Amino acid sequence: MENLKGKRIILGITGSIAAYKAAIIVRLLIKAGAEVQVVMTPAGKEFITPVTLSSLTGKPVVSEFFTANDGTWHSHVDLGLWADAMLIAPATASTIGKMANGIADNMLITCYLSCKAPVFVAPAMDLDMFAHPSTQRNIALLLSYGNHIIEPAVGELASHLHGKGRMEEPEIIVKSLNDYFKRQESFSKKKILITAGPTYEKIDPVRFIGNYSSGKMGFALAEACAQRGAEVVLITGPVSLKTDNPRIHRIDVESAQEMHDAAISVFESVDAAILCAAVADYRPENCAEQKMKRESVGDFTLSLVRNKDIAAALGQKKRSQQILVGFALESHSGLEQALNKMQRKKLDFIVLNSLQDEGAGFKVDTNKVTILEKNGKQTEYDLKSKKEVAADILDCLAGYLL
Ligand code: PMT
């Protein structure tokens, strides 16, 4: 658990029988060298006393907005900014619902809303409450905010029923945090090049050959790399997406040639490159200087020439410690084609997405990928949001970054 050393953790405790396990979580965090500040909901205090928790953390427990006897205000904003991570364990259905919908009627929720650090949520509730569409919708909302859900385990519940809803064991919860910081550390001080979006290949001043790429997958990767502490160079074709993360240096290009030139010029300085752009393989041999008029031109045949393969060019230039990641968008024989591309372009691993999978590929907010690595490992993932897919890809990349 060496990655928790010196980390500042807010532990939010809510009103569930699993609250007694929060004392073990505190002990494990403190033993790993973390500093812990407990924030409790009023219901949480019914299950475990603040005295137990403050004795373990060495800090007064925060649960009210004001200290009753002298009116001292407890700043949820300062707490939110202080933390390296916030963990809510156990998290009841009620707290998850309030987090999802911004109902800031207690100190824990105000801390959550002010918190800039990553948030981990370990749900604890009865199986039917957990399975209820309302709870599942709220959990999906938390995931969409970038929060991490530590899935509850299947087992005996307080109701004596058996099912999914039991808060995960403290050791596993603390390990999730440790693993998170471990992954983060492999990205800090790293520079990563990402290509995204389509390229446009001009036919004349008003027409082009392009494709349906929206840039969503590449931008999700850029944001995820930046959130993990990397410096990102994002070379993007024409898309309508915005970037405001100061760690992302964006270079807008239009054609495959421009994307190639920009990628070649920065590749030397990066530790890894993720080539997510849907680069046009062909461009018109000639681009008309004036708008082509149907009346004067009539029918015509467009002659196309091959564009440079950016991934293959970077594969040729790659130093032994640089990591090269490609994508493969296939309509058939996906695995075979992706393996072939990985070898031909000298990639360390390739992310296959298939046009045959509903919800995968161009424009949508979701994707379904299989990662094929040069050591022969293949990992197939479920359909997920592009944000979550980006996290899976970066988890794989973390294993390659020195
Ligand atoms: O942008 P979205 O709407 O979110 O859609 C995401 C996506 C479907 C575009 C993305 O997930 C994806 O699959 N990107 C790669 C699409 C593609 O062009 O695949 P490909 O199999 O043709 O290319 C293989 C690899 O070589 C890719 O890494 C590609 O970036 C690279 N390539 C291809 C041609 C070329 N001339 N130069 C390249 O670098």
- Rounded to the nearest angstrom, the distance between the terminal CA atoms is 19 Å
Shape: elongated
Helix content: 25-40%
Count of helical regions: 14
**What is the beta-strand fraction?**
15-25%
Rg calc? 25 Å
State the major sheet: 8 strands, mixed
| Structural class label | alpha/beta
The distinct bound ligands, ions and cofactors come out as: ligand PMT
- The unreliable regions are none
Overall pLDDT confidence: 94
Strand arrangement within the widest β-sheet reads 12-11-8-13-16-17-19-20
What's the number of extended β-strand segments? Answer: 21
Description:
With 402 residues, the protein is an alpha/beta fold. Helix content is 34%, strand content 24%. It has helices spanning 22-31, 50-57, 76-82, 93-101, 107-114, 127-131, 133-144, 170-187, 216-227, 256-267, 294-297, 310-317, 334-344, 386-398, and strands spanning 8-13, 35-40, 85-91, 119-123, 148-149, 153-156, 162-166, 191-196, 201-204, 207-209, 231-236, 248-252, 272-275, 282-284, 304-306, 323-330, 349-354, 366-367, 369-373, 378-380, 384-385. The two termini are 19 Å apart. The mean pLDDT is 94. The site of ligand PMT has 28 residues, from helix 9, helix 12 and strand 16.
Keyword list:
alpha/beta, 14 helices, elongated, binds ligand PMT
